[in-house]
UniProtKB/TrEMBL annotation:
The protein's required cofactors: Zn(2+)
Protein name per its UniProtKB record: Peptidase M48
Keyword Protease: yes
Keyword annotations of the record: Hydrolase, Metal-binding, Metalloprotease, Protease, Signal, Zinc
Chain ranges of the Peptidase M48 domain: 63-241
InterPro entries associated with the record: Mito/Outer_Membr_Metalloprot, Peptidase_M48
Residues in the signal sequence: 1-21
Domain of life where this protein originates: Bacteria
């Protein structure tokens, strides 16, 4: 057994020797177990799921803009040979992300918070930088190598094996350093790429102040998604400013543009925050105006809504519920499809009605699996799960509301699961059905004044002054010149 650890090291060394590739950005040899063909395949596989999860923003002007700027930037990048795709997804979250193979996504939430084409271009260049420098492929390769080493250690030492989970978590912390280095390299590439297509990258630095203030206003528990996975915005503001000045000096770049007014006019009318037509939570009830249904949500439960499903769970994570469209032409077929897909077997089923709607209630449990039975003698099995599912026919659809927990906790959560499903009903409240979203509106300041006075003139509630200041990338005390364009939010 003592020979296994050296063998695992030898295996890792062999993998390392055979899996080094030249980084397109640095020209250096990096550990890489993922080929370019695999990167492209990963992106192609991920894209339909991302689009299905969020949906695309129905704004041809903005979609065309991100495609045009993205293709211009891709052409001057270190990997112009890839087939890039750029999309704006329908999420209020302030985020931008890239997946391997050339796929880049911006949310409408982040689009609303940019205040110029230059800010947008800098972040776009940053995300393209993750792709050109093969950061995702490198992280996956490093993770693979680490697991080879750790598995060798766990096999060789029963003591180490007891702490396998902790070691894996430690490896994640070890490579967090590399992740942050990747982010800084992508900042450099964002400066380079945006400058090459004619934008002043110093404005990219300004956006990090918006991120920082957004995080401070939201509180630690609700920091913007882009900030939560990236280095401290305050530090990046100074660094990116310096990088922009250095690159402009080195390349003699002149006549660089900001594109503030052109960008603001382009986002006029963009939906801001949650879009009610996709469903909204209010006073512990979820309403879906387009599909015209409603159901209760337990107080204190965490809640998430997406185009594919609504899901919710208590904060301790001991249970979860979801609502989604079921597949099947009948209640029985829909139930069987769900059970098969999730490897569950029915324990009890019953035809019922839910507020006058035909329905099928099913209690199910985890189906026995041969692999689990084989491994039972070697390791402790995970606690078996049990579920209560309602399949409800309404409006030409079959809705599946399912609550899941462990078999041991099933009786504890049964009444909650049942109460939510049995209170699914038709939405008839016209105020809820006709609820309009908030949208970004661009106004022209008539008279020079501090931003706080300008917002007051446009009837912005005082409790939203700071929110609007962040949205505009300004301070409330900043003096706004006459004829300046600013953002406000209206219904």
């Amino acid at each position: 057994m003592k020979k296994l650890l050296p063998c695992s090291l030898a295996t890792a060394a062999l993998l390392l020797f055979n899996s080094c590739a030249t980084n397109p950005v640095t020209g250096k040899r990096d550990i890489n177990f993922v080929s370019e063909e695999q990167e492209v395949a990963m992106g192609m596989q991920a894209d339909p799921g991302i689009v299905a999860q969020f949906g695309l923003v129905e704004n041809p002007t903005l979609q065309r803009f991100i495609q045009e700027k993205g293709q211009q930037m891709a052409a001057v990048s270190h990997r112009p040979n890839l087939k890039y795709e750029f999309k704006i997804v329908d999420s209020p979250v302030l985020n931008a992300f890239a997946v391997p193979g050339g796929y880049v996504y911006f949310t409408r939430g982040i689009m609303a918070h940019f205040n110029s084409e230059a800010q947008f271009a800098g972040v776009l260049g940053h995300e393209i930088g993750h792709i050109t420098a093969r950061h995702s492929a490198q992280q996956q390769s490093k993770s693979t190598l680490t697991q080879v080493l750790l598995m060798g250690g766990m096999i060789a030492s029963p003591t180490l094996a007891q702490y396998g989970n902790e070691l894996m978590q430690g490896a994640g912390l070890l490579f967090l350093k590399f992740g942050r280095d990747d982010e800084r390299q992508s900042d450099e590439l964002g400066v380079e790429y945006s400058t090459k297509i004619g934008y002043d990258a110093k404005h990219m630095a300004d956006f990090f102040q918006t991120l920082q203030r957004q995080g401070e206003q939201a509180g630690q528990g609700e920091i913007p998604e882009w900030q939560s996975t990236h280095p401290n915005p305050a530090n990046r503001y100074s660094t990116v400013h310096q990088l922009a000045e250095q690159f402009q000096k080195q390349t003699n770049a002149t006549n660089l543009k900001e594109g503030r007014d052109s960008y603001l006019r382009m986002i006029d009318g963009l939906i801001y925050g949650e879009d009610p037509k996709q469903g909204f939570l209010e006073n512990n009830t979820f309403y879906h105006p387009e599909l015209k249904f409603q159901f209760p949500v337990p107080a204190g439960w965490q809640f998430q809504n997406s185009p594919q499903q609504v899901q919710m769970a208590p904060k301790d994570g001991k249970a979860m519920m979801f609502l989604r469209l079921a597949q099947g032409t009948s209640l029985e077929a829909a139930a069987q499809k769900m059970l098969t897909d999730n490897q569950l077997q029915a324990v009890e089923s019953k035809q019922v009605t839910v507020n006058g709607l035909p329905a099928l209630a099913v209690i199910s449990q985890q189906a026995p699996q041969q692999q689990q039975q084989q491994q039972q003698a070697q390791q402790q099995q995970a606690a078996p799960i049990q579920a209560l599912s309602y399949f409800i026919q309404y409006g030409g659809n079959i809705y599946n509301i399912t609550g899941v927990t462990t078999a041991a906790d099933f009786n504890t959560y049964f009444q909650t699961f049942s109460g939510i499903a049995q209170n699914f009903r038709q939405l008839t409240d016209q105020e809820k059905i006709n609820r309009k979203p908030e949208v970004v509106r661009i106004k022209t300041v008539k008279t020079a004044a501090p931003l706080s006075q300008v917002l007051q003139a446009y009837n912005v509630p005082s409790k939203r002054f700071e929110e609007m200041a962040i949205l505009n990338g300004m301070l409330l005390t900043d003096r706004v010149a006459a004829n300046t364009l600013i953002k406000v939010v209206e219904k």
